[in-house]
Amino acid sequence: MFSGVWVLLLTLSFWTALMQGQGSLPADQFVVLSRDHVDSPCVLYDASRHPALSLVAWQHDARLDLPTNQVIFVVKEQSKLRLPAGTPFGDEGAPLWILPQSQNANLLYLGLSVERVASGVFAGPLTIALKQVEGPGYFLVWQATGPGEYSIRVDSRDGVNEADGFQPLPGAHEHFNWGFSAPGVYSLTFQASGRRLGESTNIVSANSTFVFHVQPLPAPARFETWQRQHWPPGFNPPTTLAYGNPDGDDFDNWHEYAFGLSPTNRNPVSESPQLSVLNRSENPRAQVQFWRNTAAEDLTYRVEKTSRMPGGWSTVTNLTARSFPFVSPRERVEIPDLFGGLGSEGYVRVVIEGR
Ligand SMILES: [Ca+2]
Ligand SMILES: [Ca+2]
Fold first, then answer.
1. Within 13 Å of residue 60, how many CA atoms lie on the same side as its CB?
2. 150-182: per-residue pLDDT in tens?
3. Considering every ligand atom, which ligand is closest to the CA of 252?
4. What's the pTM?
5. Which ligand ends up closest to the CA of 264?
6. What is the distance in A from the centroid of ligand 2 to the CA of 293?
């Protein structure tokens, strides 16, 4: 788990903050898709590559094959429905966000495609297995087969197992309803496999994790979710990593998250913990302020002080927090009168730890 320490140094005379298939996209670009026809998962087969099977999103209009680290799928809030009575998808009245099997021009229209796998290579159907679902709710894939009749292919309510997936023949192209039960970031991992003619074992693709943003996105409670709100998994290393700094400001991604900042806009250094001296001429007092991400459930924040380096750190307890609606979900933490009357020197540090 990552942790960080922001050290502030104070003396009477001065203080300072120490901080410290088509075509393909260039590696430093990704796309966010919220409408139109896209085939995903789309199975590709190339015997000269290892693994020979791969899964991509095929964006027809742009003639692009998008690997999982270059695409984010958006499920708009307008796809949210209330379930009628009598469906197998949840209680009557429960919300479900649905990307429909019949095209709606305002929503993403996802197809499952094995069209680009030639016949005569595999001994039978391929398998596209769901391997893992991470997200705030459950995930369903089904086709309506008649009035009140459904063919359910994926249902994560009972976990993910071999029943969750597809067995398409080479050349197949099908559309399904994709349902999500709650808003937030979902990471759906698929793997393709198949047995080639004349062979006795299957070949498999890599596990391929596609990210879906089911809107409206709540403030992320974990760093991993925060990463996937901003980029597809593994996009253009080290862009998404804790030490990445794609906007080139004074904050790596981990500190952008911890202070509730934006990793794609340069933040001024004044957004870092600030130490100031109040009433300098008569009864000088020290005050420290910093921003805390109130949505982050995986971080703890602690302020420590000492009168001499390098040891003797003690935890400061008289913290006050002020929230500001326009900068939610972060709040400004203040420690007024940090040292009372000042001695000759003092040191303060903000300790942020993962948990
Ligand atoms: Ca940054
Ligand atoms: Ca920034």
1. 14
2. 999 999 999 999 999 999 999 999 999 999 999
3. 1
4. 0.89
5. 2
6. 14
Tokens for 222, please give them.
Answer: 């974990």
Give residue-wise pLDDT tens across range 330-355. Answer: 888 888 777 766 566 788 899 999 98
Bridge partners (DSSP) of residue 58 are: 39, 65
Q: Locate the DSSP E strands across 157-315.
A: 165-166, 173-175, 177-180, 184-195, 202-204, 208-214, 274-278, 285-293, 299-306, 314-315
| pLDDT single digits (tens) 50-95 | 999 999 999 988 899 999 999 999 999 999 999 999 999 999 999 9
How would you class 312 by CB atoms within 10 Å of its CB: exposed for 0-12, middle for 13-18, buried for 19 or more? Answer: exposed
| Partners of residue 346 on adjacent β-strands | 10
Give domain limits for the chain: 3-19+269-354, 31-222
- What φ, ψ does residue 66 adopt, rounded to 5°? -110, 115
Joined together, the tokens standing for residue 57 give 């999103």
In the reported structure, the alpha carbon of residue 20 is separated from the centroid of ligand 2 by a whole-number distance in angstroms of 14
* Rounded Cα–Cα distance for residues 102 and 257 (Å): 39
Q: Which residues contact 294 (CB under 8 A, 6 or more apart)?
A: 260, 323, 328, 329, 330, 331
